[in-house]
Structures are given as structure tokens and as C-alpha cells.
Amino acid sequence: MGRRSDIDWESIERDYRIGQLSLRQIAAKHEVAVSSIVKKQKAEGWSRDLSEQVRVQTKAELIRLAAEKARENATKSVQSDAESVQAAAHTNVEIISAHRRDIQTEADRTRKIAEKIDNLMGSAVLPKDVALLASTHESLVRSRARLIGLEREAYGIGEAEPPPDDDNQIDLGRAAELRAKIRGS
Questions:
Q1: Domain boundaries, the chain
Q2: What is residue 132's predicted lDDT score, i.e. its pLDDT?
Q3: Which of 39, 81, 146, 180 is deepest in the core (most CB within 10 A)?
Q4: pLDDT tens figures, 120-164
Q5: CA dist., res. 38 & res. 43, Å (int)
Q6: CB < 8 Å & 24+ apart, contacts of 138-142
């Protein structure tokens, strides 16, 4: 295979000196063998002397963008109170709507888990399986209690009430049945 005359060595040297691309990346970009670039680099004494200038320029550009954003924010801060209230209300609506969607997703998930527990209760024979179902059901009841409080808060129905910590304050329904089944009653 003969020498290629269409190789743009100036572009290759520029990419090499800037230092952002590896030799393999430069070779792929310009469709040249890595060994050819290494030979040329050694023959002509190329160095990656522009990489520090690139870093300095990058930092300067980041500082310029930050200053520009600060000026932009300062301009925005002179908005009227009505615009500020409107913007805050809009943000709150987005957040509350997202919370409502999340709560609904978790409520749906809880219902699916409850259905699975119902299906498994009929087939649980071993005490350890029944105990596991009872424990799972207890966790499910606690999750539902938390979700109800969160949902009430998200919909403005009332303040969220912390879920009770005491088992006696939560209607554990089926959990009591499962405990009885474990004891063999």
C-alpha cells in the first residue's frame, strides 16, 4: 500500500497539541494509523503544549457563564411581588402534583401486594410461611397508614398524622388471623 496524499497533518497536529483526544481517537478521526501519527510526532517534535491553554480558557468560559447567570438572576429578582408569588405558586403546584402521582403509584403498589398476600394466605401451611405473611401484612398496614397521611396532606384534607407506633393502635385485621394460625388455634 502506498502513501496517502490526502492526510491533513496540520489538523492532526492541532488535535494532538490541544490534548483532548487520545492518539487512538485522533487516528480514528483522521483515518490514519496510530503508528503514523507517532512517527510524525517524533519526527517533527510535536508536544501537547496547548492542553494547559485549553484548561485555562475552559475555566475562563465557566466563570463568564457564572457571571452572566448571576446578572440574569439579579435582573429577575426585581420582579413584582405578584410575579414572584405566581412563580412560587406554580412551583408548589408542580411539586404537589408530583407528590400526588408518587403517592398514587405507591397506593397502587400496596394494593397489588395486598392481593398477592391474599392469594398466598390460602396456600400457606408451614408456620414459617404464615409468620412471613403476617409480618409482611403488618408492614403493609403500616405503609398504608403512612400513605393515607401523606395523601391527606398532599390533597390539603388535613395535616398528615404520624402513623401509630403501637400495634394495638393499628387495625391489623388479617395479621391477627395469621398469628392465630401460627399458634395452631
A1: 9-44, 95-183
A2: 86
A3: 146
A4: 877 877 888 888 888 888 888 888 888 888 777 776 776 545 545
A5: 8
A6: 138/167, 138/172, 138/175, 140/110, 140/113, 140/114, 141/170, 141/171, 141/172, 141/173, 141/175, 142/170
pTM, full prediction:
0.38
- Got the DSSP string for 73-128? HHHHTT--HHHHHHHHHHHHHHHHHHHHHHHHHHHHHHHHHHHHHHHHHHH--SHH
**pLDDT tens per residue, range 85-116:** 787 788 878 877 887 888 888 888 888 888 88
Estimate the crossing angle of helix 9-18 against helix 23-30, to 10 degrees.
150
Q: Which three cell numbers stand for residue 167?
A: 400495634
d(CA 185, CA 180): 5
Residue 141 near residue 175 (C-beta atoms within 8 A): yes
What's the pLDDT score for residue 25?
A: 92
How far lies 165's CA from each of 141, 142, 168, in Å? 12, 9, 9
